[in-house]
Specification:
The complex is a heterodimer of chains A (693) and B (460). Chain A has 31 helices and twelve strands. With 693 residues, chain A is of the alpha+beta class. Chain A has a five-stranded mixed β-sheet with strand order 8-9-10-11-12, with helices on both faces. Chain A has a three-stranded mixed β-sheet with strand order 1-3-2. In chain A, a hairpin with a 4-residue loop joins strand 8 and strand 9. In chain A, helix 2 packs across helix 3 and helix 14 crosses helix 16. By secondary structure, chain B is of the alpha/beta class. Chain B is elongated. Classes of the chains: A alpha+beta (693), B alpha/beta (460). Chains A and B meet through helix 2, helix 3, helix 7, helix 16 and strand 6 of A and helix 1, helix 3 and strand 2 of B.
C-alpha cells in the first residue's frame, strides 16, 4: 500500500510543472480560472470520487454505493475510464487518475484549467457561488452536511431507516427546485450548527423569513431593495399561492408534515427532518449549475484543451499521438455527446464571430456591396492575407530574431520581455558553450513552450479560426442574405480603400472575445437556442427522431434546424425533466397538496410519476395530487393509422393522480386546473405530416 | 470509509427489491443472464423522479455521413455513456447480479436444499505440512524433538532405583535369583546380570556373600520400610546425565501428501426436440434446466455441460441452440441415452460427478422405455438421473415414459422423476430433482476429507 502512495506522490510531483505551465498558458489565452489543486488518485479512489459527485465526503446514502458499483463496472469493462474529475469550488480540486499516460495527464490538466475558468466565470455557477457565502465553498459545505446527517442518523432517538426514507424522498425531488434563483436556497438554510435542529416555534413561515432577514444584518437600503414587500409577499403567500411555485422542495419544506402511521394523521416534523431537507435542497442548488451547463462546460474544456494540446503542442511530439487518440475517443463516443456538441458549438461560435468581423470589414471596402461581394472580392487572396505572420505562426527558437524585430517595433502580438530573456539566454549559452557551463538564467523554455513569446493577441493570430484549413471555405459559403442582413444596419461604409487595408483591421481575437462573453452569460438552453444555426445542423448531420406508433419503432423525423433545436431544448430545459409546480397547498380545502405538471405536449412517464408521488407524500404527510395531461391513442385510431400508413391522432386527456398512502388512484381533471397547466404555445413534436408516406 | 457502508446498504436495498428467487425462476426473464452471471431483474433500484415518457419525447441524433432521410428507422440512443446526464439513463432494466455461487446459496435457502458436492478428480498432489515421519531421510529433516523424546522414553523405561534393588541383597537369605525374582515382581526393569554384579560388589565390600547379609527379615519388611523412588523424581533431582540415543529412535520428517480433489461435475442436458415439443413445453424445460445448471455451476469447482437433443435420433448441440431447436421427427429416447453413454466415456465416473437430466413430454416410441431406456439408465453410472416431464395441461394418456421410469426405478435413490405442467411447478420440480441425489460411488468419504484439507489450506 505504501509503495502505491509513494508512486502516486511521485506522479503528482511530476505534474507540478505541466500544471504551472498550463495555468500560465490558460491565462495567456485569456482564461481566468479558479486556482486548482491537483491530486493523483488510483482507479478505486477515482470510482469513489465519481460516486460522490467529485467530492471526498458526502452524507451516508446507498445511492453513492450504487454510483460506485456502476462506475466500477464501467471502469472494469473499459467502457468509461475516468481520466479526471474536477469539482466546482474555489479553489477547484481536480483528481487525476494515476494510470493516465503522461500525455493524458497533460491533456487532462489543460481540460481542467478550462473547467476551472468556466466555474469561476459562468453566471449560472455564480448564482450559487454568490449566494452569500464567500465563494462556492462547496467541499466544506458538503462535508458539513455529511457530518450533520451522519450525526443525525447516529442519534439514539432517530431511526436510521427514517433518515434513509427522508433522504430518498428529497432526492427523488432534487430537480423540482427553482434553479434560476439559488439565492432562495440560502434563505432556508441557516447557519450550520445546533440551531438548525430547532424549528420555528410558531411555524409561521413569513415571520421566520422576516427573522432571518433581520439576522442577516443588512442595511435598511439593501433590505428595501432586495427583500421588498413584493418579495416577501411572494414568499409568504403561504399555503395557497396565487402563482404556481416552481420550488416544490421549498414548499414541502415550509408546509409539509410527516405522516404518522400509528395515529393515521399528519404530524409536525422533527427538527432534524427539516435540517436534512434543507441540507439536501441546498446541495441540489449547488449541482444545478453543473447540470444546466453540461454541454457548454464540457465543450469549453474540450475546446481549450484542443487549443493548448494540439495547437500549442503542450503535449510533446512523442505524446501527441496518444493525445490525438484520447481526443478522438472523447469526441467519437456515439450518440448525442455533450463534449462533441459543446465543442462543435463553441467552434461554431468562434467561426461566426470571426467571420462576421471580417465580413463587416470587407463590406466597408469602397464599392463592395452584398450583391457584388463574391465577385468583387478574391476570397483566395483574403484567405492568404488572413494567414498568420510567419514569425507568429512559427514562434519558437528559430524565429527569435524576427520576433525581436517585431517587438522592437512595439508589436502587441509579441511578449517583448520574454523574447529579450530568450535572446539573452541564447547568447549566454553560446558564450558559455566554450567553457561548457550552463547559463544561470536559462530564460523561458521556448523550445517546449513557444507560446511564452506571444501575447494573447499573438496567440489569437496563431490560432485564428479562419486560417485553419478546415474553415478556409467559411467566407465563401456565406450567403448573400447574410451579407445583406449585416449590411442593412451598417454605417460608416466605404471606410477602407482596399481589401488589404480592411483585412489589416481584422480582429483576430474576435472569436475568442465572443466566446468569453458567452461563457459568462449563457447556460445550455440559451446556448443551444442562440447558436444552433441551420448551418450547424446541416453541416453536422443532426436530426430528430420520434417514436412511430403505427410502425412501433423509432424513425428519423426531421433534419430541420428548428426541429433539432426544439428537441435539444426539450432535452436541456429544466434538466431535461418535465416542469412540476405547486398549484395548491390546501387543495379541496382539505390540506391536500396539488402539484401541476406544466404540459408542453410531452406527457409524463406515469410509472415513475406515480412512484415519485409516493415520495412526495412522505414530505407532505397528507394526500397528494398531481395534475397532468396524457395522450391516449384508441385502438381504432392506431388500426386506422396503420392501414393508411400515417401516425394515429392521440387525444390529450387531463388526469389527476392522487396518492393518500394506499394506492395511486386516477381521477378526472377539473378543466379549470387543466387550463392552468396547459401550455399552448410550445410544440416539441417534430413529426412531419407525410412521415411514413 | 463511508462509501463502504453506502455500498453495503446499496446491496441490501438491491436485495430487498430484487425479484424473489422462486418467482424469478418460474416467471422471470432468464435471458438476461449468462452461464457465469445470473442477472435477476430488480424492481426499482434507483430513485424515481418526474420524467418524460421516452416515446413521447423523441430525441436528437447525429448522422455519421450525410443527413438521414426522414422516415428512416433509427435506434434511439442507448443508455448514456457519461454519468449523470439528464435523460441518458433509464432505458435499461436494473439487475441484481449474482454469481452462480450466490445463486446456489440462495436457492439452497429458498428451497431448503443442501447438496454437498463431492470432490472427485485428483487435480494435484501437494506437499502439506511436515507432519508425517519416516525412519529414513536426509539428516536435515531429523526430528530432533522426536528423537530426544524416544531416547528419553527409553531411558525412563530402562532406568530404575538402583539403591532400592541393592537393598534387596540385604534381605535375609536372599540370593541373586531371589532378588531378581523380587525386583521383576515389583516391575523394576533390571537385568539379572546387573544384580549379580551388584551382589559381587556388595559381597566384596562386606566380606561375606550376600546371602549372609541380613538387614531385612524379608522382602515384605523391606517394602514396608523403603520407598522406591520413581525414575522421574530421580531425574528431576539428579538431572539427566545421558540419554541413550539409538538408531531406531531416529525419525525423519517429511511432508504429508495431500490429494486435492476438485469438486467437478459434468451435466448432460437431454431434451426431446421432436415435433410434439412445442414452445410452451420447451420453455418449461428451459425454466427447469437453466437454474439447475447455475446451481451446479455454483456448487462445484468446475462444471462442464453437454447438451443433447433428440427426436428418433440424438445429436449434440451448443447451449445457445439447445432450448430452441424443434425438429420434425418422431421420438426415441434411448437414442439420447446411447449418445449420453458415449459422451460420458470422456468423464470417468471415478473422477467426475455426473448428472444426466432429460426432459420431454413423456412420449416415446413403442416399448423403447422399458426395453432400452431403463437398462441404459441403470448401466450409466451417475450421481443422478432425472427425467422432467413437461406436459402443459397435465399428463397425456399415451405418454408413459415418466410413469414407466418411475415404476421401474422410482425407488432408486439416484433417479428422480418430476412433472411440470405450468411455470408454478418449476421450483417444485427443481427441488424434487436436486434433493434426490444418491450417494454415488463409495469414495465420497475420501472426497469429504480431502475437501476439509483444501478448504483449510487457503490461509497460507
Amino acid at each position: 500500500m505504501r509503495d502505491e502512495r509513494v508512486e502516486a506522490k511521485r506522479e503528482a510531483d511530476a505534474l507540478d510543472e505541466p500544471a504551472a505551465e498550463a495555468r500560465e498558458l490558460a491565462e495567456r489565452l485569456g482564461l481566468e480560472p479558479y486556482p486548482v489543486r491537483y491530486w493523483v488518485v488510483d482507479h478505486d479512489e477515482m470510482n469513489e470520487l465519481i460516486a460522490y459527485g467529485g467530492f471526498q465526503r458526502r452524507y451516508p446514502h446507498w445511492r453513492w454505493g450504487m454510483n460506485y458499483e456502476q462506475q466500477r463496472k464501467k471502469d472494469r469493462h473499459g467502457l468509461g475510464k475516468a481520466f479526471e474529475i474536477v469539482n466546482n469550488d474555489d479553489p477547484s480540486h481536480a483528481f487525476l487518475q494515476e494510470s493516465n499516460s503522461p500525455a493524458d495527464q497533460k491533456a487532462v490538466i489543460t481540460h481542467v484549467e478550462a473547467h476551472a475558468d468556466f466555474f469561476a466565470n459562468n453566471r449560472w455557477f455564480g448564482l450559487y457561488a454568490d449566494r452569500g457565502e464567500d465563494g462556492p465553498n462547496a467541499a466544506a459545505r458538503l462535508e458539513r452536511n455529511a457530518d450533520r446527517i451522519a450525526a443525525i442518523a447516529d442519534r439514539p432517538d432517530v431511526d436510521r431507516d427514517e433518515v434513509e426514507r427522508l433522504i430518498d424522498a428529497v432526492s427523488a425531488l432534487e430537480d423540482t427546485i427553482d434553479q434560476h434563483s439559488p439565492v432562495d436556497a440560502a434563505r432556508s438554510v441557516e447557519k450550520p450548527g445546533v440551531a438548525d435542529d430547532v424549528s420555528d416555534p410558531d411555524g409561521d413561515a413569513l415571520a421566520a423569513i422576516q427573522d432571518r432577514i433581520d439576522e442577516l444584518d443588512l442595511s435598511e437600503e439593501v433590505r428595501r431593495d432586495v427583500f421588498d414587500d413584493e418579495w416577501l409577499e411572494a414568499r409568504g403567500e403561504g399555503i395557497e399561492p396565487e402563482e404556481p411555485r416552481p420550488d416544490v422542495l421549498a414548499f414541502l419544506r415550509d408546509y409539509g408534515k410527516r405522516y404518522d402511521p400509528d395515529s393515521g394523521k399528519a404530524v409536525d416534523r422533527e427538527p432534524w427532518e427539516t435540517t436534512i431537507i434543507d441540507a439536501l435542497r441546498e446541495e441540489a442548488y449547488y449541482f444545478a449549475g453543473q447540470k444546466q451547463t453540461k454541454v457548454m462546460n464540457e465543450g469549453w474544456a474540450t475546446y481549450w484543451e484542443s487549443v493548448m494540446m494540439g495547437g500549442e503542442g503542450f503535449a510533446g511530439p512523442d505524446e501527441f499521438l496518444t493525445y490525438a487518440d484520447h481526443m478522438s475517443r472523447v469526441l467519437g463516443s456515439p450518440g448525442l455527446n455533450p463534449y462533441k456538441l459543446g465543442f462543435e458549438l463553441w467552434t461554431h461560435v468562434e467561426l461566426r464571430a470571426a467571420r462576421r468581423d471580417v465580413i463587416d470589414k470587407l463590406l466597408r471596402v469602397e464599392g463592395v456591396t452584398p450583391e457584388n461581394f463574391h465577385s468583387r472580392i478574391d476570397l483566395d487572396r483574403v484567405a492568404d492575407a488572413l494567414e498568420p505572420h510567419p514569425a507568429i505562426a512559427g514562434a519558437g527558437p528559430a524565429t527569435l530574431d524576427e520576433l525581436a524585430d517585431l517587438a522592437a517595433e512595439g508589436d502587441p502580438r509579441v511578449d517583448g520581455e520574454a523574447v529579450d530573456r530568450a535572446l539573452s539566454a541564447r547568447s549566454e549559452e553560446e558564450s558559455a558553450g566554450d567553457d561548457g557551463e550552463t547559463a544561470p538564467d536559462a530564460g523561458p523554455d521556448v523550445e517546449r513552450y513557444p507560446w511564452k513569446l506571444l501575447t494573447r493577441e499573438g496567440l489569437a493570430e496563431r490560432h485564428y479560426v479562419l486560417s485553419r484549413p478546415e474553415h478556409r471555405g467559411a467566407l465563401r459559403n456565406v450567403s448573400r442574405e447574410t451579407l445583406a442582413e449585416r449590411a442593412r444596419y451598417m454605417f460608416d461604409v466605404d471606410r477602407y480603400a482596399t481589401v488589404d487595408e480592411a483585412l489589416a483591421d481584422a480582429d483576430r481575437a474576435a472569436g475568442w472575445d465572443r466566446m468569453l462573453e458567452i461563457r459568462e452569460s449563457h447556460n445550455d438552453v440559451t446556448f443551444i437556442d442562440a447558436f444552433l444555426t441551420d448551418e450547424f445542423v446541416r453541416e453536422r448531420n443532426y436530426f430528430t427522431y420520434e417514436y412511430s406508433r403505427a410502425t412501433e419503432r423509432h424513425r428519423v423525423a426531421s433534419v430541420d434546424a428548428d426541429d433539432v433545436r426544439k428537441k435539444l431544448l426539450l432535452r436541456f430545459t429544466n434538466f431535461g425533466k418535465p416542469t412540476i409546480v405547486v398549484l395548491d397547498g390546501n387543495f379541496r380545502n382539505r390540506g391536500e397538496l396539488l402539484l401541476g405538471h406544466r404540459y408542453n405536449g410531452i406527457s409524463l412517464d406515469e410509472e415513475s410519476a406515480k412512484a415519485t408521488l409516493e415520495r412526495v407524500f412522505e414530505l407532505w404527510g397528507r394526500p397528494v395530487n398531481l395534475a397532468t395531461i396524457r395522450v391516449e391513442y384508441s385502438d381504432e385510431a392506431i388500426r386506422r393509422a396503420k392501414r393508411r400508413g400515417t401516425e394515429p391522432e392521440g387525444e390529450e386527456v387531463g388526469v389527476r393522480l392522487q396518492y393518500d398512502g394506499g394506492e395511486v388512484t386516477e381521477h378526472d381533471l377539473d378543466p379549470a386546473i387543466r387550463e392552468r397547466i396547459e401550455a399552448d404555445e410550445v410544440d416539441y413534436d417534430t413529426k412531419p405530416d407525410d412521415w411514413l408516406a | 470509509m463511508g462509501l463502504t457502508e453506502d455500498r453495503e446498504r446499496f446491496r441490501e436495498v438491491g436485495e430487498e427489491r430484487r425479484e424473489d428467487l422462486a418467482e424469478f425462476i418460474s416467471h422471470g426473464d432468464l435471458g438476461g443472464s449468462g452461464p457465469d452471471r445470473v442477472r435477476i431483474p430488480v424492481k426499482i433500484v434507483d430513485l424515481p423522479e418526474f420524467e418524460y415518457d421516452r416515446r413521447e419525447a423523441g430525441g436528437v441524433g447525429q448522422g455519421g455521413d450525410g443527413q438521414p432521410q426522414p422516415g428512416q428507422p433509427v435506434e434511439p440512443e442507448p443508455g448514456g455513456d457519461e454519468e449523470g446526464d439528464p435523460g441518458e439513463e433509464g432505458g435499461e432494466h436494473e439487475y441484481y447480479e449474482m454469481d452462480p455461487e450466490e445463486f446456489a446459496r440462495e436457492l439452497d435457502e429458498a428451497l431448503g436444499l443442501d447438496l454437498e458436492p463431492k470432490g472427485k478428480r485428483v487435480v494435484e498432489e501437494v506437499e502439506g505440512d511436515f507432519t508425517d515421519t519416516a525412519r529414513a531421510g536426509p539428516r536435515g529433516t531429523l526430528d530432533v524433538d522426536e528423537f530426544f523424546k524416544r531416547g528419553l522414553k527409553r531411558h525412563l523405561a530402562t532406568d530404575f532405583d538402583e539403591e532400592y534393588v541393592r537393598e534387596g541383597l540385604f534381605v535375609a537369605g536372599a540370593d541373586v535369583d531371589d532378588v531378581f525374582a523380587w525386583a521383576r515382581g515389583e516391575g523394576v526393569p533390571v537385568s539379572r546380570a546387573w544384580i549379580a554384579d551388584a551382589a559381587a560388589t556388595a559381597a566384596e565390600a562386606h566380606g561375606e556373600p550376600v546371602e549372609a547379609l541380613d538387614r531385612w527379615e524379608s522382602f515384605d519388611a523391606l517394602d514396608d520400610e523403603v520407598d522406591r523412588e520413581p525414575a522421574t523424581h530421580r531425574i528431576r533431582r539428579e538431572g539427566l546425565d545421558s540419554v541413550p540415543f539409538r538408531r531406531e529412535d531416529e525419525r525423519f520428517r517429511h511432508p504429508e501428501v495431500i490429494e486435492k480433489r476438485e469438486r467437478n461435475v459434468v451435466v448432460v442436458n437431454v431434451r426431446d426436440a421432436s415435433g410434439s415439443m412445442r414452445e410452451t413445453k420447451r420453455e418449461l424445460v428451459e425454466r427447469v434446466f437453466t437454474p439447475m445448471d447455475w446451481y451446479l455451476t455454483g456448487k462445484y469447482d468446475a462444471a462442464e455441460f453437454r447438451y443433447v437433443v433428440h427426436d428418433a435420433e440424438a445429436w449434440e448441440v451448443d447451449r445457445e441452440e439447445f432450448f430452441g431447436i424443434q425438429s420434425g421427427g418422431g421420438t426415441k429416447i434411448s437414442s439420447a441415452y446411447e449418445l449420453v453413454e458415449e459422451l460420458l466415456e470422456e468423464y470417468p465416473y471415478s473422477e467426475w460427478n455426473r448428472y444426466v437430466f432429460a426432459a420431454g413430454d413423456s412420449e416415446n416410441a413403442g416399448s423403447d422405455t422399458t426395453d432400452s431406456v431403463i437398462p441404459l439408465m441403470e448401466s450409466i453410472d451417475a450421481n443422478l438421473h432425472a427425467y422432467v416431464e413437461t406436459q402443459p395441461g397435465g399428463a397425456a394418456p399415451n405418454a408413459r415414459h415418466a410413469d414407466e421410469v418411475e415404476d421401474a426405478l422410482g425407488d432408486a435413490d439416484d433417479v428422480a422423476v418430476a412433472r411440470v405442467s405450468e411455470p408454478d411447478d418449476v421450483t417444485d420440480a427443481i427441488y424434487e430433482i436436486l434433493s434426490t441425489e444418491g450417494e454415488g460411488s463409495g469414495d465420497s468419504t475420501a472426497g469429504e476429507a480431502a475437501r476439509g484439507r483444501t478448504d483449510g489450506g487457503g490461509g497460507r
